[in-house]
């Protein structure tokens, strides 16, 4: 049997709408109630893509996706990875809209089995196609956005790790590299008057560290550039902001984003030492990682990560091997992972509203050599109210009744959702099913 569903996404302006309307049609297999659907709108980008184009930077080779059709693009695009400002949009390739499966929700004890952060397909109130959005509010809840985060009934709600990973938005990847990209890492001057030269240097297209005779930690700072069309110089240093590479035609003020996720990959000896500093608001927090001793020193405490012979570090002693450190500040929690194993989670205070000190991420070399093979940075979705003035705290409270859900699109600047609808909440009866979060 074949069934078909029409789904739509709503977006802010009619001009964008014309490009972004989503039509989902599908059939289901025997014994499987799910339906295949085609995403045609980009209010869920970059998690789900409707019609879009893919462009490639001719400087750093980074490939990126832009909502809409080629005809609607400016002639030159800005590379969101390296800031190169003249990527020829004529070379961009149209991409088909993504196909997804819509699975009807199970009903357990009279309740729909829908969790916060699920992506759902929703029947529209008239004959317009259905839409896909992410669930942020559950039945009976009152939702507010505060400084980019979601609060339910006054309490911060955090994304589980797999949702944080599925929704994080790429900001920078040094694997797509050019001489310019490497300039975004800046060796800090030593604090004392030692002048034996830089201990961080570029070798073979990567930042390498050689210990200095003083043994003093030497810092390499990552500097964020505003990789958007701008009258400022390309290398003007800014905080991470809530830019979407999808939205080249959307003019708006960007919000500063404090929720960042850095992944630093090294080649180093097993016994190496490396420090990582992350600045949250005005506070600079330092991890001192001693791979040889299997310990991390942090804020006066220490955590062991070798312990019972875990496979965190499993190469032969002394041999150079790949090591990976993740530092994440999503949802007011600072977490750190070494080779994928979570070690420390520290709650972060509410923002005091002051400007963030820069840089946000620094890497410190100590007494052992290091080669940084890759540095990646993502940011969290920055939630804000409709109508909030260049900020996130409009103070609006969205309320869901019994069997009602509050929904937003991941592409916050263009999505039309519970923030805009006259009746913000959607009845569970209008939810057609869930869609797998992207991996
Ligand atoms: Zn580039």
Q: Your description of this structure?
A:
It is built from three helices and 35 strands. The chain is mainly beta. Among the domains are: 14-51 and 96-142 and 394-435, Umud Fragment, subunit A (Ribbon), CATH 2.10.109; 185-222 and 258-379, Jelly Rolls (Sandwich). The strands form eight sheets. Strands 15, 17, 18, 22, 27, 28, 29 and 31 form an eight-stranded antiparallel beta sheet that branches. A seven-stranded antiparallel beta sheet has the order 1-7-35-10-11-33-34, with no helix packed on it. Strand 10 (119-122) and strand 11 (131-137) form a beta hairpin. The two termini are 30 Å apart. The structure holds zinc ion. The site of zinc ion has 8 residues, from loops.
Keywords summarizing the entry:
3 helices; 8-stranded antiparallel β-sheet; 439 residues; binds zinc ion; 7-stranded antiparallel β-sheet; Jelly Rolls; Umud Fragment, subunit A; mainly beta; 37% strand; globular; single chain
Compact summary:
The protein is mainly beta. Helix content is 4%, strand content 37%.
Average pLDDT value? 84
- The assembly state of the depicted protein chains is single chain
The CATH superfamily of the domain at 185-222 and 258-379 appears as: Exo-inulinase, domain 1
Helix percentage:
under 10%
Largest sheet, in brief, is: 8 strands, antiparallel
Given this structure, which CATH class of the domain at 185-222 and 258-379 is correct?
Mainly Beta
Radius of gyration computed on alpha carbons: 23 Å
Shape: globular
Task: Classify the beta-strand content into a percent band.
Answer: 35-45%
CATH-assigned fold name of the domain at 185-222 and 258-379: Jelly Rolls
CATH architecture descriptor name of the domain at 185-222 and 258-379:
Sandwich
Termini, distance in Å? Answer: 30 Å
Class of secondary structure makeup: mainly beta
Stretches with pLDDT under 50, minimum 5 residues:
1-30, 307-312
Write down how many β-strands occur, each being a DSSP E stretch of 2 or more residues: 35
| Helical stretch tally | 3
**What are the bound molecules?**
zinc ion
